[in-house]
Amino acid sequence: MNDSKRVEIAWPALGITVAAELDQRNPALAQCFWDALPYRSLQGHALVAGNHLYHVAPVHSLLHAPAAYRVDRRTVPDGTLFCSRLQHLGIKYGRLTEPMTATPIGQVVPEDLDALVEAGREVWQSVYTTKEPIIAEVRRAGEPGGHDLPRLPVGDPELNGLIADVHAETERIWLNPPRELVDLHAGRIPSQAGSYETVLTTLLFVNGETRPLGYSCYGGLVRAALDGMPLPWLRQMTRQLAHTPAEFLGYCGLDTLWGFTKRLMDGLDRLNSHADYISAMAHMALYCNCLGGWNLHLFPWHAGDRLRRVEATV
Predict the structure, then answer these.
(1) Per-residue pLDDT at 145
(2) d(CA 223, CA 234)
(3) Where do runs of H (alpha helix) occur along the chain?
(4) Do 218 and 85 touch, CB atoms closer than 8 A?
(5) Contact of 149 with 41, CB cutoff 8 Å
(6) Edge to edge, what strands does the sheet with 44-45 contain?
(7) Confidence at residue 1, expressed as pLDDT on a 0 to 100 scale
(8) Structure pTM?
(9) Are 91 and 123 in contact (CB under 8 A)?
(10) SS3 of 58, please?
């Protein structure tokens, strides 16, 4: 990849577009990102780390692409772009507090940094208060936008049908909130999950199970397969890691996820190649990460508005 690759990140609802230059710090990771353009995604905002934007990028290879150059996000300039194995495109736009290493791929051009800060503040209000979704569009500079979710094949016909259904559902909810999550956040919970009719407790546990299911379980299984873990071990790890959280999420209202998981468990022994296994787990990862993004957007963070950080006393 040459040094002149420029991208545009637009938030049409805000009337804001910023340009960024990709660089050579993590060339393989940047190339994966470049090859996937254009796409659209629900824009999210960091809820713990500080002034940081991120969204799920529909790029399966981000789960495993090599990225040797790592930095402490707190120390790099505002406007730094990152890609991560959580399938995120992240952009720092101000102060960060989390001492987390990350893999940079580019930089917003200096003349657009003020616009980036404005976008960051508007997205924070979207996530924390208004709940009006803001869609990001990422494209090659000077080229039209668009959107397409990649589809990976699986050799077994029945499992290929499952992955086709997972892909179709991911497409359906990519830019529109899943009805199951909308119902859950409105308190419509058929199982009556939530002790003493509470809803916030159930929402908290759903968030706590959905994010690691995509980030750690399915993303980790893809990397384990690429590292050469034998298929019998991979199947066993899949059963151990994925079944219980998906069953719990089904009880809480995510019936589609639980249905996909049961079909996957029933067909695990027919995943007879690492390539097919990786395709199946990558699609489950992207689907779960999409659910996680919507759950973070819909979650009523303002319910804790009176809980504010205070300075520690000696």
Answers:
(1) 93
(2) 11
(3) 27-36, 113-125, 157-174, 179-185, 200-212, 219-226, 231-252, 255-267, 274-298
(4) no
(5) no
(6) 39-42, 135-140, 6-11, 16-22, 104-108, 80-83, 88-96, 50-56, 44-45
(7) 43
(8) 0.95
(9) no
(10) coil
Contact 93, 81 (CB under 8 A): no
pLDDT digits (tens, 9 = 90+) for 170-228: 999 999 999 999 999 999 999 999 999 999 999 999 999 999 999 999 999 999 999 99
Taking the alpha carbons at both ends of the chain, their separation in whole angstroms is: 53
Token digits of residue 130: 């208004």
Closest listed residue to residue 244, CA positions, set 217, 266, 223, 220: 217
User: Which residues in the chain show pLDDT less than 50?
Assistant: 1-3
Q: What is the pLDDT of residue 312?
A: 76
The count of other CB atoms within 10 Å of the CB of residue 201 is 12
Size (the chain), residues: 314
- At residue 47, the 3 state secondary structure works out as coil
- How far from 251 is each of 257, 275, 283, CA to CA, in Å? 11, 32, 22
Confirm if 181 and 255 have CB atoms less than 8 A apart: no
Q: Which tokens belong to 171?
A: 């497409």
Give the Cα separation of 223 and 229 in Å (integer).
Answer: 9
Secondary structure (H, E, C), 150-205 = CCCCCCCHHHHHHHHHHHHHHHHHHCCCCHHHHHHHCCCCCCCCCHHHCCHHHHHH
In angstroms, the CA 141 to CA 305 distance is 39
